[in-house]
Amino acid sequence: MSTSTGEAIQFWILAVVAVLGAIGTVSMKKAVHSALSLAGTMIVLAVFYLAQGAYFLGVVQIVVYTGAIMMLFLFVVMLVGITAADSLKETIKGQRWAAALCGLGFGILLIAGLANASLHSFAGLGAANSGGNVEGLARLIFTTYVWAFELTGALLITAAVGAMVLTHRERTQRAATQRELSEQRVREGAQVTPLPAPGVYARHNAVDIPGLLPDGTASELTVNPTLRARGQIRDVSGERLAQLAELEQRSENWLERDEHERDGGHRANGVNSANGSNGGGQ
Amino acid sequence: MNPVNYLYLAALLFTIGGAGVMIRRNAIIVFMCVELMLNACNLAFVTFARLHGNLDGQIFAFFTMVVAAAEVVVGLAIIVTFFRSRHSASVDDASLMKL
Amino acid sequence: MDHLIGALVGAPLLGAGILLTGGRRLDRTGHWIGCLLSAASFVIGALLFADMLGKSGSARTMTSHLFSWVPVAGFQANVSFQLDQLSMTFVLLITGVGTLIHIYSVGYMEQDENRRRFFGYLNLFLAAMLLLVLADNYLLLYMGWEGVGLASYLLIGFWQHKPSAATAAKKAFIVNRVGDMGLSIAIMVMFATFGSFSFGPVFSHATSASQAKLTVIGLLLLLGACGKSAQVPLQSWLGDAMEGPTPVSALIHAATMVTAGVYLITRSSAIFNAAPAAQLAVTVVGAVTLLFGAIVGCAKDDIKKALAGSTMSQIGYMILAAGLGPIGYVFAIMHLITHGFFKAGLFLGAGSVMHGMNDEVDMRKFGGLRKFMPVTYVTFGLAYLAIIGFPGLSGYWSKDKIIEAAFAKGGTDGWILGGVALLGAGITAFYMTRVMLMTFFGEKRWVPDADGHEPHPHEAPRTMTIPMIILAFGSVFAGGLFSLNSSFLHWLEPVTGHTEGHSPVSTVLIQAATLVVLALGLGLAWVQYGRQAVPAVAPRGSLLTRAARRDLLQDDFNHVALVKPGEYLTRGLVYLDHSVVDGVVNGTAASVGGLSGRMRRLQNGYVRSYAVSMLGGTAVLVAATLLMRGV
C-alpha cells in the first residue's frame, strides 16, 4: 500500500527544503538566520502534518510553534544576540570528532533500525478521523489522557511562574531621582554635557558615522555603542581622509608662498594644519 | 511512496539537531537545535499515528508541543538571566564545574 | 538486717565517689571522710556479725537482692549479695584491717599533696573487695575482681611521676589480665555447662557435669587465682608492686587482695572437690610458690621486697591447703586471717621504719633500730614471731595445721607436700629472722644521703602506731582464739565442709619436727646475720642467691619465653601488614585514584561534551536494543 503520487511529489520537494532548513539552523553564523531556517523547517513539517491527516496539529504547529515560540526566540535574540555572529571555530579538543562519530553512529543506527523494521503496510487515519480530527483528539484528551492533560496545565503555570522568577530583578533600594543622577555624574567627573554629535559632513549626515577629532581621527564618543557592538558603524574611509589631507596640503601650499618665507615653515605648518582640520571637522 | 519515508526524514532531522547541540556554542542556537529534535520526534509521532490508524500518536505530539512550550519559556528565561550576569550567551562560558 | 549487706559495699563506694569527684575543697578533710566511711563499713560488718552469731545453722546465710543487672532470657545476672560465714570472715578482715590501714595512712601520707586521691582509691578498693567476697554469682564476683585489679593498678602507680612505679603498675595490670582472662573464660564455660553462674545452681549441679569440663573450669579458676594471688607462674608482678605506698602494700598486696585467689578456690570448693586433677594442680602451684617465694625472700635486701617474697610464700601455703580439699579449706582461711594480721603488721612496721629513715628501704642501711623505734620494734617483733610460727602465736596455730593437713593427704603426694611445707617453715624462719636482725639489731649502718642529710630515726606518730599495736594484738591472739575449742572450724564448716585428716605420722611428731626446722632456720640466720656484722654492700653470694636476687630469674624467663616471641610475632605481623595488607589496600586505592584521575578528564565542565556523552550513550542503548531484538 502506498500514498498518492501527489503526496510523494510534495514529500520529495518539501523534504529537501526541511533538511536544508535544518542544516541552515545548525550552520548559520547569526542566530537570526538560524531562527529563520528553523521557521522554514517548521512550516514544512506543518504541511507534512496536514498531509498525514493531523489537521489540528498542523495548524497548531504553525500558530503556536512557528508563530509564538519562534517569535519568542527572536525576542531573545534581539535581547541577547547583539554580539552577533558566532564563531564556528571549535574550541574543545576532539569535540568535532566525537560529535561526528556519535551523530553519524546514532543516525545510522536509527535509519538501519527503521529500514529493518517491517513497516510495509499502513492503516491510514480514515477511520480515526471519520468524526473529525479535532473531535477525535478532543475525545482522547478529555477521556484517556485527561490526567496527563491536567498535569500539562500545571506544568505550563509552573513554567510561566518560573520564567518570571528567573527574570525578575528585585529592587533593593529606592530608584535614584534625576537630580541625584546628575549630581552623581558631576561627582564622578563623567561626561556632564550631552555627548558630541556624530559626524556631520557636507555630503554625509548619519548616526553611524563617527565624528572626527581635530587631528583627523574618529571619536569614540560620537556613535552609539550598540551600533559599534553590532559592527554597524560605517567608518570614515581612509580614502576620504586622504583626500581631506590632500586638500589641506594644497591650501597650505597655496598659502605658503605668502607666509613661509617670513616665518619658520615648520611651526607655521603645524598651526595651519591644526586650523585646517578643525575647520574641516566641524 | 511508503510513509516510512517520513520516519527517515524524522531520523535525519533529529540527527542534524543533535549534531547542532553538540557543535554550536550560542545557547540560543543550541536551544533551537533542541526544538528541531523535538519537531523531528513529533513528525515521527504523527507518522506512526497514521501507520497504526489511531490518534494516540497525535496526542503525544500534542503533549510534546505543550511541554516544549513550557521548556522554551523557562529555557529562554535562563538564557536571559545568564546573559545578564555573564554578558555572553555561549554555553562554554557556563563551565564552572570544570576540573 | 539483710538489707544492710548492700550498705557494706555502699559506704566505701560512696567515699570513693565523694573523694574522687569532690575536688580540692576536700583536701583538708578528705582523709577523715575516707576513714569514717571505712569504719562505717566495719561497724555494719560487726552488726551483721553479731546478728549472724545470734542465728544458727543454715539461717546464718543471708541474701540480699538489689536489682536485676542483665536479664536476658536464660542469661540472668543479678546484683545480689550472699553473706555466709566465709564472706563474713572476709568482710571483717577487709573492713577491720582496712580501717586500721586507713588510719595509719593518715599519718603516713601526711606530706603527700594527693592524700585525698589516695584515700579515694583506698575506699574504691574496699568497695571492690567487698563486692568480690559478697557476690552471690561469678559475674558479680568478676566485677569485684576487676575492681580490685583497677584499685591495685591505681595505687601501685600512685606515685606515677616515678617511672618505676608507673612501670610496676602496668606490669601488675598486664600480668593480672592473664589471670582475669582465665577467670572470665571459666565463667563462660560455667555458663555453657550449667546454664548459670550463680553459686547456688552451679554448686548443686557440680557433680553432674563431666569430669573434663570440671577440670577445665577448675584449671581456669586456678589461672585466675594465680594472677590475683601472685602464684607461679603469674607471680612476677608482686615484687614490683612494692613501688606503691607502704599502706597499699600492707592492705592490698599482703592482707586482702592477694588472698582473693584463696577465696575463689575455697568458694568454688564444690567444683574442685569434683575435679581431683584440678585439685592436684592447685596443690602443686601452692607448693612451688611456697618455696619460690621463701627463697626469693631470703635474698632480697629491700625490706618490702623481702616481705613481698614472704607474702607469696604464705599465700602458697594457703593455696596448698585449699588444694588439699575438705581437710584443708578451713585451715587455708584460718591462715589467711592470721596472715592478714601479722603481714599487715609487718608491712606497717616496715612503713614506720621507712618513715623514720627518709624512705630508705635497703636493710643493709638499717641496723640497731630497736633503740630508736621501740613501738615499731615490739609490734614488728610480735608479728615476726607470729609469722615464723612461734608456739602460741597466731602463725603457729594456722601454719601447723596446714603442715599436718599436707601430710594427711596420704600417699607419696602427702609426703612430698608435707615435706615442702615443713621445709618452707624452716626457710620462713630464716628469712624473717634475717629481716628482723638486719633491721633492728646489730650496729647502726645508715649513712648520710647524697645531700648530706643524716637520717634521724624516730618513732612514728600516733595515727601510725595505734593500728600497728592493734594488729600486733591480732598477730598474737587470733590464732589461739580461733583454735580454742576449734571455734573457727565450727564456724566455717557449714560453708566449706570439713573432714578430719589422718596423718600417717603422729601429730606430735609433726609439731616437734616443725619446731626443729624453726630452730634450725632461726639459728642459721643468727649465725649469718646476728653473730657477725652485716656488710653494708651485699656480697656476691652463691649462684642461687644471685638468682634469687633477680626473683629466681622470673622476669628473664618471661622475657625469653613470652616477650621475645611476642615481639617477633608482632614484627612479623607488622611486616605482613605493611607489605601484604597495606599493599593490597594501597594498591587498590592507587589504582582507583589513577582511574579516577583519568575519568576526571571527562568532567571538563562543557555542557556540549556532556551532550556528546549523552548521545553516545543513547546510541549504545539503541544498538543494544537492536541487538537484543536480534537485528
Folded structure, characterized:
Chain B: It is a multi-pass membrane protein. Chain B: One of its GO terms (molecular function) is oxidoreductase activity. Chain B: This is NADH-quinone oxidoreductase subunit K. Chain B: It catalyses: a quinone + NADH + 5 H(+)(in) = a quinol + NAD(+) + 4 H(+)(out). Chain B: Its EC number is 7.1.1.-. The complex is a heterotrimer of chains A (282), B (99) and C (631). Helices cover 64% and strands 0% of the residues of chain A. Chain A is built from ten helices and no strands. Chain B has 99 residues and is mainly alpha-helical. The termini of chain C are far apart. In chain C, helix 3 runs antiparallel to helix 4, helix 15 packs antiparallel against helix 19 and helix 16 packs antiparallel against helix 18. The longest helix of chain C has 47 residues. The mean pLDDT of chain C is 90. Chain C has 631 residues and is mainly alpha-helical. Chain C has a two-stranded antiparallel sheet with strand order 1-2. Classes of the chains: A mainly alpha (282), B mainly alpha (99), C mainly alpha (631). Chains in contact: A-B, A-C, B-C. The interface between B and C is medium-sized, with 14 and 11 residues.
